[in-house]
Fold these 2 entries.
Entry 1:
Amino acid sequence: MRSVGVEEELLLVDPDSGEPRAVAGTVLALEDLARGDDPELEKELQREQLETATRPTKDMTDLAAEVRRRRATAVERAGAVGAAVAALATSPLPVDPSLSAGRRYRRVAEEFGLTAQEQLTCGCHVHVSVESDEEGVAVLDRIRPWLAPLLALSANSPFWQGHDSGYSSYRSQVWGRWPSAGPVEVFGGPERYHAHVRQLLDTRTLLDKGMIYFDARLSRNYPTVEIRVSDVCLDPDDTVLVAALARGLVDTAARDWRAGRPPEPVSVGLLRLASWRASRSGVADGLVHPLEWTPAPAETVVRALVEHVRDALADSGDLALVEESLARLLARGGGADLQRAALARTGELRSVVEEAVERTAS
C-alpha cells in the first residue's frame, strides 16, 4: 500500500480582530526551542502563515490523527505569542502581507513584484509514494483530468481583501499568477518531464526547482507524486478525504499504466478551463465532467471521481471512509460554503475568522 503525507499551510490571525498577524518568526522560534532538529512547523512565503507536515503513513485513521495533532501544535505555539490559527486558504479580512526573512524570499519579491507581495494563500499538498520516476510521470500523465474535482472538494477561499470574490477558491486564482503554476501537458516519460523542467529553469524566470508549481509534480525531496491543487481545508476530515482520493488516483493511474492504457490526450487549455470552473463553483454549482467534458452538477462530477478510483479505494480499505466523508461534505457544503454561511448569519467577516479559529482548534 502506498504511503501518504500531507502538508497544510495555516493562517495566523489576531484572536480578537480576526486580522492576519505577522508572527510566524516568533512562533517558529518557540518551535525550534521545543523540538530542535525535528520541528513540526515551518515558515512559508509570508509571515502571516505557517506550514505543517505529517509523517508518511499508509493508514487514513493515522493520517487523520496526524493532521489534527499538527494543527494542535500550531494552535499551541501561536497561542503562546497571543495569536490564533485558522485553516483558511485566504484571509477574509484585508491584509498587507509581510514577506518572510531570507535571501531567497527577497529575490522572489524583487523578481515577481505584486504577485509575490499579495500571495497570502494557504494550500494543501498531498504526497503519495511512487516506485520510480517512470511510474511517477505515468501517474502525472493520467491524473490530469481529475485534479479539478479535487480542487472543487477543497475550495475554502471565497473572500479576498474584505470582499466576496465570487469564487469558492480564490486562492487558486491568485496562485495561478505564478509563471509555472497550473496544469501541464502529457509527458510520456521521465526524460521529457525532466527536460521540460530544465527548459523552464533555463529561461532564468524561475529562481530554482522549488518554483515548479505544477498542479501535480514529482517531489524534489521524496519518492512521491505531490498533488498541489487543493486549498487548505477548513475541516480536517475534508483533508483526509482529499488525501484518500489522491492515493486512489495515483493507484488507479499506476494500474492503468501497467495495463498499457494510455492517458487521455486532454489539452492544457481544457484542463485550465475545468480548473477555473472548479475554482468558481466549488461543490455549490456545476463543474466540467472530466470524462465527457460537458457541464454537470458538482455532485455528479465528484461521484464520478469516486467511481473512477473505486477499485483502488476498496483495495486500500478507504472506500467506506471516502463515501461517508463525501456524503457529509455534500450535505453541509465545503469550506467556502461554511464561510459564506457564517457571514450570512453574523454580517461580519470577523465572525467568519472566529468560527474558522474554533474549527481549527477543535
Entry 2:
Amino acid sequence: MRLSIKRVYAPPEEGDGFRVLIDRLWPRGLAKEKAGVDLWLRDIAPSTALRQWFGHDPARWETFRERYLEELRQGEAAAALETLRAEVAARPVLTLLYSAHDEAHNNAVALRDMLQGGG
C-alpha cells in the first residue's frame, strides 16, 4: 500500500490511485469535474476553531498536530478516520488531497504521518 499527499489543485494523475479530499470546505475555484476526487471526508478535517487558531503558522505546527490528532479520536472525526483506514487497507494506492498552500504544515501531513505510525 502506498499513501501519498497532494494539493487538490494539482492535476489528477493515474499514479494517484484512489483520491480522498480531507478538507472541510470545497477548494475555492475548483470545479468538481477537474478535481478528480473519489471520496470527500469533510468530517476528518480539523475543526473550524482549530484551523483558524493554527492559521498555517509553522510556529504552531506541533501544537496543531497534537490537537488535530486528539480531535480524530472523537465523534464524527473518529468515524471518518475509520472510513479512511478501511479505504487505505482496501487500496494499493491512496492519495490524501488538501488545499493549503503550505506543503509541509497541513492536516494531510499530520494525517499521513499518523496513518503510517508516526503520530
